[in-house]
Amino acid sequence: MRNEALHFALRNRKLVVGTVVVAVFLVAGVVGPMTIDHKPADYVGPAMAPPSGEFWFGTTTFGQDVFAQFLYGLRSTFLVGVLGGVLASVVGMVVGFVAGYRGGWVDELLTMVTNIVLVLPALVVLLIVNAYLGVRSVGVQALFIGLTSWPWAARAIRAQTFSLRSRDFVDLARLSGVRTPKIILREIAPNMSSYLFLTFILLFGSAILIAASLDFIGLGPTDSVSLGLMLNNAARWSALQLGMWWWFVPPGAGITAIVGALYVMNVGLDEVFNPKLREM
Amino acid sequence: MLKLDGVSKVYRVGAFGGRALTAVSGVGFEVGEGEVVSLIGESGSGKSTIGRMVLRLTQVSGGTITLDGRDISSIRDRKEYYRQVQGVFQDPFSCFNPIFRADRVFALIKEQYFPGVGAREWRGRVEDALESVRLDPGNVLGKYPHQLSGGQLQRMLIARAVLLDIRLLVADEIISMLDASTRIDVLNLLADLRARGLGILFVTHDLSLGNYVSDRTVVLRDGRIAEMGPTPLVFGDPRHPYTRSLLAAVPRLHTKWTDAPVDGTADGTAEERAEDLPCAYHEAAQGSRTRPGLAEVADGHFVACSGCAGAAPEEKKMKERA
Amino acid sequence: MALSVTDLRVYYQTLRGEVKALDGVTFSVADGEIMGLAGESGSGKSTLAKSLIRLDGRMRHAGGTVELDGRTLPIADDRAMDEFRFREVSLIPQYSMSALNPTRKIGKMVGELLAARGVPGGTAELERRLELVGLSKDVLGRYPIELSGGMKQRVVMVVSTLLNPSLLIADEVTSALDVSSQKAVATTLLGFRDHGLVTSMMVVTHDISLVYQIADTILVMYAGRLAEKAPAEVLVTAPRHPYTRQLVSALPEVGVRYEDRRLAGIPGNPPSLLNPPGGCRFRDRCPVAFEQCAEQPPFAEVAPGHLVACWKAE
């Protein structure tokens, strides 16, 4: 079974292309910074220089190396996206699965909690918490993003679970004596695996964007660079008006490429795991 | 073997469960070993709810269901119960998880009940079970559900139940989605299982199917038993007007509705016409009312009141007593 | 001759190739005739019914003609069919219960529908016809949710026959209903013809015993082709195609019990229509097949009004 999925996975062009793109950015974010001997915020070159052999992505208004910023930014962006996305997905899935499968008062209680978190003005809460705690690391940022962005995922998963729960194969698994957590994991979740992955991708993307917004209002990590921070710096110093395209294109293209590649991967995964689509 | 006694099911509906909806009310009957009992009713009669309660997929609100005298809700270990009682449902396509191979239903049984059995021996057992439901193992093993026909899937589900060596099978509308040319084979299969000593609760809306395969018939209406008894008696000499109207409406080959003898006025349903007929329940002697709401009009043939005029004063009496 | 279909071919496009769902079908329905169209899943009966009304996106008209009252139906041209739909040929869909918009009152919905079709809205005729099927005119002021399944079905039936179509197609209209409403709906269909509201009718169903109750003739399809057409009585009592014979004898009837008479199904499965084998398509399951069956038998008349596609049907 597993080998077969792998067999189809390797032949699926969408999955392969998406994976390669994400992997390239990931490697660049992890390994790249080690190859550069100066800090991203260091003033190392001439100001406002376009891309050249020395500074591949050019420099900022202050003479900082955009390429170095990009590599470091990739790293922290991946970190925020993955940590925030994973955390929100896990919370959303647990709440969604339990509420949808159990129903009754459990569902009512969990739905109430979900709705309360949903209507909380998340950004304002983040603002207050961030300002109050004064902790400005990527990890803490990811934690708060994760804890506030799960509700819509929980609602969507609850609805899906609800409709799958009444399918006969779930009853059949119960008649086979399978316990509830196992039914959720092995009967219901695989049926929405592409949906769950899509949820993760969207949460990953939104975590990156929320992080960028936080960065913009001065509540981002003080000790590092992120793609969002780069974009916002570029905007603040009028890179667009000054024609310094090399400042904002790399971070913008980076975010778009990562999220887009994840989406293509998702479509590919759907084809691999759904035997009906596989044949078409 | 299986006995239902005054079983009821009340659903809470509306906001905060404010309203109650009675799906099944005071139903009692038995299924013996090697006996097929068909549970016949139209949509909303509660027949499927009864099937689900027997399978412990839905909780019983009132009354008891016992297996060999043991209340099934007191059997803590669900596996112990499901080893003896299994179900097959209406839609074979929905019974298989579409993303896995169809034979996964067997793997699930092995994992839960026979973890110690070796792979080769297990394969032998699966092949035997498939052959017993007249499937060619080579044809169905390793396939995905959408590559198999409804009849093949339904037979695999019966084979799955057979693997467990069960004593009671709940068959809920198992052939209504199959084609005419294959449904009779599945019905015959049920009859073969019966010959092996299996008790079968056959839930259906189709009177001719119920008649073909069952020893006893229970006719349900709005969650209550209208009539029950040996199949030849219920079909040959129906005493409840509802049973009669159902029988009259069944399309038959060789007899057209228009050919049927018309008693009373031509218009109106058989039920309206039957109002002039005496109510079998109130005609019966008081002593024959051995079950609540049912009178025994012949040996093992029970019938409920047709809703005749005699019912009103009796209810009054009951209220006075209470 | 109300309807005459000649060598009609309709194929379904799938990613694996074309499925020959309807592969060369020739028959006719006379004025005033109620023809039952029976077959199992995948026989092509629903494809036939649909192609006389509207080809959906995946269906392709691969050949053959359809004539209604002497005019050729442009079945491959969705626009041109608008002129015929509803007026000349009308369909009662399989799930007509869900065909009604739950948020609009019945009367309003019907009025809009008629206006869209350019029909002057006279409610008198509508009310008269509702009465004919046993509904009071009050239903026009109600929401679909307030009506039972059988009532909704009858509303849809009245609407689809409002313009006295020449041909009415009822697609599995009784399969989702309870026994008692089945009878009511079937008799209503019969009433449409008897009151002259429709000229002829095609009743598509998988249930031969039901269609036998109301049809004059029954046409049996198998794997995209016609197997047998005969007067209802003849088809049920003296079928000549081996498939029909086995099918009819596989139907349990009230009164037949397992102990007394064990019925048998038809072994095997219908062939795939992706690349169907040549010759008679029932060959592999047929108990009387012989060499000549490798050649496709013609759908020939063996007795007046009795057509069979089988070499051994003489």
From TrEMBL, chain A:
Matches recorded under InterPro entries: BP-dependent_transpt_permease, MetI-like, MetI-like_sf
PROSITE patterns found in the cross-reference section: ABC_TM1
Keyword Acyltransferase tagged: no
Record localization: Cell membrane
Segments traversing the membrane: 15-36, 78-101, 113-133, 195-219, 245-269
Domain ABC transmembrane type-1: 74-266
One Pfam family here: BPD_transp_1
Keyword annotations: Cell membrane, Membrane, Transmembrane, Transmembrane helix, Transport
Protein name stated in the entry: ABC transporter permease
Organism the protein comes from: Microbispora triticiradicis
Native organism taxonomy: Bacteria, Bacillati, Actinomycetota, Actinomycetes, Streptosporangiales
TrEMBL record, chain B:
Record-annotated membrane-spanning stretches: none
Domain of life of the source: Bacteria
Keywords of the record: ATP-binding, Nucleotide-binding, Transport
GO molecular function, one term: ATP binding
InterPro entries the record matches: AAA+_ATPase, ABC_transporter-like_ATP-bd, ABC_transporter-like_CS, Oligopep_ABC_C, P-loop_NTPase
Cited SUPFAM superfamilies: P-loop containing nucleoside triphosphate hydrolases
The ABC transporter domain, residue ranges: 2-247
SMART domains in the record: AAA
Record protein name field: ABC transporter ATP-binding protein
Organism this protein belongs to: Microbispora triticiradicis
Automatic annotation (TrEMBL), chain C:
Keywords for this protein: ATP-binding, Nucleotide-binding, Transport
Domain of life where this protein originates: Bacteria
Domain ABC transporter, chain residue ranges per copy: 3-248
Record bears the keyword DNA-binding: no
InterPro entries linked to this entry: AAA+_ATPase (IPR003593), ABC_transporter-like_ATP-bd (IPR003439), ABC_transporter-like_CS (IPR017871), Oligopep_ABC_C (IPR013563), P-loop_NTPase (IPR027417)
SMART domains linked: AAA
Record keyword Transport present: yes
GO molecular function (one): ATP binding
Protein name as it appears in the record: ABC transporter ATP-binding protein
Organism encoding this protein: Microbispora triticiradicis
